[in-house]
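Q: How do we represent a protein-ligand complex in a form that can be generated token by token?
A: Start from the inputs.
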Amino acid sequence: MPLQIIVGTQWGDEGKGRIVDWFAANSDVVARYNGGDNAGHSVTVGSKLFKLHLIPSGIINPKPIAILGNGMVINPKSMLDEMEMLIAAGVEVDPKRLRISHAAHLITPAHQALDKAMEVARGKGNIGTTGRGIGPAYTDKASRRGLRVANMLEANFSEELTIRIEEANRQLKLLGAEELNAKSIVADYEKYQQWMLPYIADTSLELHLALKAGQTVLAEGAQGTLLDIDHGTYPFVTSSATIASGVFTGLGIGISGTGGMEVTGVCKSFQTRVGSGPFPTEVFDDLALQLRGSGANPWDEYGTTTGRARRVGWLDGVLLRYAVRINGLTELVITKMDILSGFETLKLCVAYKKDGKILEDLPFGPSNLDDCEPVYEELPGWSEDIGGIRKWAELPKAAEGYLEAIARLAEVPVRLASVGPEREQIVSAK
Ligand code: IMP
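Then emit the structure tokens for the protein with inosinic acid bound:
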């Protein structure tokens, strides 16, 4: 397909990074359309674990070029650190392979300081943000006072940045937080400016030309459907359009100009969430530990960006069906099937019980999950280690049955399932 969109069906951390890496081998361009360095995309290649927050994880594959789209908010320091990490690991990163939209917005230390100060001010009702300045950067964008990457091309960039830091200092003072030193921030950003200039491009035009020339574009979503600013578990969401339709505004691609698309939903075989907010199928104690892992392995359920232990639970089929609908998913990829080895019985949430009624669809969307009690279907588990399996037909019958139950519930076929963190630990249904 000319355009393939990879989107998370849950609250992020579905394993999108390694799935993007899988599809990147057959793509000409890989482009991120939302969020910033709040994301944490991991890809394991041999003994090397790549953790990317900002640069599309498709860059690890030598084939595609990588684009950071206009829907993103970019912290230049994180960007520089990530580029240095990639170059040290032997990945080719230069202005021919990496392009940053002129219309993306810049994150400054003022956004990070405001993010943290606002979380403190929210007290118990905090969102549990990553503290990366995402919300305040998108606030500035929506209030039409943000600094865009294109401002770096202007002679007055330093003055404009100084004005923004001084404005933020007034807000920080009101919040009782420490004010920032505008001079030293500007000095740092002048260095970033010099280094970023060759990478700045009209990426919307470049994507248009790529599609027109018959190239394949892989759009890499960050976070997940349930963290979408409009369609997620508001207010416990991120500040960007994480869902598939965010691709069109976040990359500047015309909806009818793609020549066809596949919308691939990446879904973990169980449910996880970082930060606050509702979670109907959440589990605790020993069961939670079994799903989360102890933290000894890099793939255990601890945040790539913040290191926080993730909340865990059984797969929520009601929320999955919602993700299928709101994204227009055409296929599913189920990750971390290996983690379910060893459970005698698996639970799959197929409906909610609320006020004595059984609900198969969400009542008023996912921000209204209070008092929704999960109704579970129980399925047999399997005990075999499935990490070495590469053929669908060799999966234990119970694992295949679990995947079939997911596909039936979602009314979308499962195309791939991952059976371990390594690049090749994937089985394909086709
Ligand atoms: P923010 O994006 O830092 O503003 O955080 C808002 C909410 O989204 C918090 O609950 C975060 O934990 C969550 N969040 C943001 N990015 C990710 C991600 O990449 N994976 C999982 N959760 C995320």
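The chain has a mean pLDDT of 96. DSSP finds eleven helices and 21 strands in the chain.
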